[in-house]
Design a protein that fits this description.
- The chain has 651 residues and is α/β, with parallel strands linked by helices.
- The chain has 24 helices and 13 strands.
- It has a six-stranded mixed beta sheet.
């Protein structure tokens, strides 16, 4: 800012015409010189090399002349007349005479004298005084050295010129290829994955095996009038194996295969994404029949018209071109498009209609048998001890996806190598499950009041979860910190649960409140800690869903809130207030409060009725730091037999 203001002040003192001329001259000079910045630097480098060459070739001559001034030409003539010279060797090429004087030792070097261009007087005096002399010209290498240096400089200039030309050609080539497709092409896909390497999603495999049969034996279907599906959309949560299925299809089909991500179509320049779509389908038609795999298609296939303010959206142009290429005026026979996404709700309806994506294949989290099959696939290249049961691992990992199970076995293998064992055992498997789910193991707690309070908190969860018949059984209780949790209580369902009843939801809320209830009953309200913060968030959300989504309250079977609305889809926090009135909102809050308070009172009553067994379990937990579910159940049964009655579960 200072420079610009100074320039304006300085220019203000000049006449207007001079300023105009000077501005035009500067603009002309800058316009002429701007594209020549690189050549000007190049010629500066060449001139520097020439100067360096001259210095290197000229310096030895100057040094030689300095060293040769031991005798002058006049002194040589005087010594010849005085008879002090015995022999003279003249080199006309370098104009140097080597003089041997009288009394000079044979080991001494002769004196060197710089001669003139014409040395007739010296030769005449040498003859008159009968001094032996000889003329021996030496080979002159200066011309050869100069030629070599000039050739080296010429080659260097040519190499620099070729580098500049190549760089300019590459930049122009990149500009021309900017709209070309960036899809990876394989004439015969060598993914290394076949259907035998995919487990846990058998229904999806059956759907996609038909696609492979379409490509390999199309006559089986065309004979009865069936048409090859144009597109298959793989839908499922992250890590369930959508991309792995696409690799298996490519490996099984043996046809040309194009793979690209949805984000590679869209650029900041308008029209580039549509150009890349056109180029991709042009190449695919030239290699038909073939497969095109578009990963994360939601990056380019989101609903049109959802942007704020309208405008010419580059992403929408790319989507329009994709819709036209998939099913437009011109057909694309022999091209099957496979796309994957975990957000099918945001895709444009025109993209999902039959004729574009004819099939939507759900790739969901695997069930018990599916998890066991996935574990068998990933256990092929790992050394596992014979006593390890993959079925037991599968039962302990409900909700795990294929990626989670692969990571589980990899973590177990890392722990095995760290402990210098030869094979993976159940100890490493259990530790790997805990690490994947809850985080890295922390430093054990020292025996203190804080440790005892955490023990009562975790035992409160475990006892209530065990006594409520609708709750999942306890797997283990531990005081070893993992992640941000200072203690953990693990529950494992006995069977896969697709639907959850109201009694099960209430049991989960009651068990989640068991830690807070134990703190209140044992230590009093004044000693309640923040350890139940995560539990309270969970139960509040669960109770609110019971009221607003599942119709499990006095408000009746009403769905008052959707599962989630995105702002770019026209939903969001602004429209939620219009779903119900303020009166209904107050009633919702009251119902949520009633459900939580009822479960809280029930949890405190269970803690009071079973205080003896809780104290016994806390002492054992503080001593051993971990109690298994079977050991917990055994202690509770023994205590009930000692009391002569069953453990109390309040209604």
């Amino acid at each position: 800012m200072k420079n610009s203001s100074w320039m304006r002040a300085w220019m203000g003192n000049q006449p207007t015409s001079d300023l105009r001329k000077e501005g035009e001259t500067q603009a002309l000079v800058s316009k002429q010189q701007k594209p020549k910045v690189a050549p000007r630097n190049f010629w500066r480098l060449a001139a520097s090399l020439l100067i360096f060459q001259g210095v290197m070739l000229g310096t030895p001559v100057q040094a030689q002349q300095t060293e040769q001034k031991s005798l002058s030409y006049g002194q040589l003539l005087q010594k010849v007349d005085a008879g002090e010279v015995t022999k003279v060797e003249i080199d006309p090429a370098t104009r140097v005479a080597k003089v041997n004087l009288v009394g000079q030792k044979e080991s001494d070097a002769p004196q060197e004298v710089v001669l003139l261009e014409q040395n007739s007087e010296l030769i005449e005096r040498l003859r008159n005084n009968k001094v032996e002399f000889d003329v021996e010209p030496t080979a002159d290498n200066s011309a050869a050295l100069g030629l070599v240096a000039n050739l080296f400089l010429l080659l260097l200039l040519l190499a620099g010129l070729m580098m500049i030309l190549r760089r300019s050609s590459n930049s122009s080539g990149q500009a021309l290829n900017f709209g070309k497709s960036r899809a990876r092409f394989q004439m015969e896909a060598k993914t290394g994955v076949i259907f035998n390497d995919v487990a846990g999603i058998e229904e999806a495999k059956e759907e996609l095996q038909e696609v492979v049969t379409f490509l390999k034996q199309p006559e089986r279907f065309t004979a009865v009038g069936a048409k090859i599906p144009k597109g298959v959309l793989l839908v499922g949560p992250p890590g369930t194996g959508k991309t792995l299925l696409a690799k298996a299809i490519a490996g099984e089909a043996g046809v040309p295969f194009f793979s690209i991500s949805g984000s590679e179509f869209v650029e900041m320049f308008v029209g580039v994404g549509a150009s890349r779509v056109r180029d991709l389908f042009k190449k695919a038609k030239e290699n038909a029949p073939c497969l095109i795999f578009i990963d994360e298609i939601d990056a380019v296939g989101r609903q049109r018209g959802a942007g704020i303010g309208g405008g010419n959206d580059e992403r929408e142009q790319t989507l329009n071109q994709l819709l036209t290429e998939m099913d437009g005026f011109e057909g694309n026979t022999g091209i099957i498009i496979i796309a994957a996404t975990n957000r099918p709700d945001v895709l444009d309806s025109a993209l999902l209609r039959p004729g574009r994506f004819d099939r939507q294949v759900m790739v969901d989290a695997p069930d018990l048998n599916g998890r066991q099959g996935i574990l068998e696939v990933h256990a092929r290249n790992k050394k596992i001890a014979p006593e390890v049961s993959l079925e037991a691992i599968a039962r302990r990992t409900p909700g795990f996806t294929g990626a989670d199970l692969a990571n589980l076995l990899n973590e177990a293998a890392i722990l095995t190598a760290r402990r210098r064992k030869d094979a993976i055992t159940m100890l490493e498997i259990n530790d790997a499950v805990d690490r994947v789910v809850a985080g890295m193991e922390g430093t054990p707690l020292v025996d203190s009041k804080s440790k005892r309070l955490i023990a009562y908190h975790e035992v409160g969860h475990a006892v209530i979860g065990t006594l409520l018949p609708q709750h999942d059984p306890v797997q283990k209780v531990t005081l070893i910190p993992r992640g941000q949790a200072r203690g953990l209580t693990w529950f494992t369902p006995n069977e896969e649960q697709g639907l959850v009843s109201r009694a099960q939801l209430l049991a989960r809320i009651t068990a989640a409140l068991g830690g807070r209830a134990a703190e209140e009953e044992v230590f009093g309200d004044a000693e309640v800690t923040t350890g139940a913060g995560g539990d309270l968030q969970t139960i509040t959300s669960l109770a609110r869903q019971m009221v607003t989504r599942f119709g499990m309250s006095d408000l009746g079977p009403l769905s008052l809130e959707t599962q989630g609305g995105e702002v770019f889809l026209g939903g969001g926090f602004m429209s939620r207030s219009a779903e119900y009135s303020e009166e209904i909102s107050a009633r919702i809050d009251a119902q949520v409060h009633t459900i939580v308070e009822h479960c809280h009172d029930k949890a405190r009553q269970i803690i009071r009725d079973n205080r003896v067994v809780i104290d016994q379990l806390v002492e054992l937990l503080i001593e051993e730091e971990t109690i298994d579910g079977d050991q917990l159940l055994e202690i509770m049964n023994e205590q009930s037999q000692l009391q002569g009655e069953k453990l109390v579960v309040s209604g």
